């Protein structure tokens, strides 16, 4: 790859990938806490595995939706054939012209199916570990 396309080809798509990682973490964590607090505050659910599952399910949906544009752009930039041929803005302009703005959500369902189990397991595990630490400290 370095010989054919140059050393800069190793970092193709790095910017959108970093943006995606920031969006993923921020949207998962913030939306999980928000959904959890709203479900408890509204009296819909009590603290427990059901609450944690529901809030993490909703957080996975939010995170998938927030990250979809960055995922699509990252993939398109990384798959560009010639080095430096497609800037992020050029990729956006071409895609909007050819496919319309909804191009940013192509592959949403497979991405959601991939992200949901991970998000649910992360937050269920986190809450159980937190409960275990609280019990061990005598806080529960």
What does this protein look like?
The chain is an all-alpha fold and 140 residues long. The chain has a single domain (2-137), classed as Mitochondrial carrier fold, CATH 1.50.40.10. The protein is built from five helices and no strands. The protein has helices at 2-5, 14-41, 49-78, 88-99, 108-137.
Write the layout of secondary structure elements.
Blueprint: H1 2-5, H2 14-41, H3 49-78, H4 88-99, H5 108-137
Question: What would the keywords be for this entry?
Answer:
single chain; 140 residues; mainly alpha; Mitochondrial carrier fold; 5 helices; 0% strand
CATH topology: Mitochondrial carrier fold
Q: What kind of sheet is the major sheet?
A: none
Rg, rounded, reads: 20 Å
Into which percentage range does the β-strand content fall?
Answer: under 5%
Mind telling me which CATH architecture this is?
Alpha/alpha barrel
Structural class by helix and strand composition = mainly alpha
Top-tier CATH class = Mainly Alpha
Q: Percentage of helical residues?
A: over 70%
CATH homologous superfamily assignment: Mitochondrial carrier domain
Envelope shape: elongated
Unreliable segments of 5+ consecutive residues: none
pLDDT average, as an integer?
Answer: 87
Order of helices and strands: HHHHH
């Amino acid at each position: 790859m370095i010989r054919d396309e140059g050393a800069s080809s190793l970092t193709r798509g790095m910017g959108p990938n970093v943006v995606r990682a920031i969006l993923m973490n921020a949207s998962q964590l913030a939306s999980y806490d928000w959904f959890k607090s709203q479900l408890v505050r509204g009296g819909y659910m009590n603290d427990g595995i059901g609450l944690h599952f529901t809030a993490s399910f909703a957080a996975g949906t939010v995170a998938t939706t927030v990250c979809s544009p960055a995922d699509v752009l990252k993939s398109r930039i990384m798959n560009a054939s010639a080095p430096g041929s497609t800037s992020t803005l050029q990729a956006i302009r071409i895609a909007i012209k050819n496919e319309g703005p909804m191009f940013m959500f192509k592959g949403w369902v497979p991405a959601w199916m991939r992200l949901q189990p991970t998000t649910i397991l992360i937050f269920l595990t986190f809450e159980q570990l937190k409960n275990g630490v609280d019990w061990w400290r005598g806080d529960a």
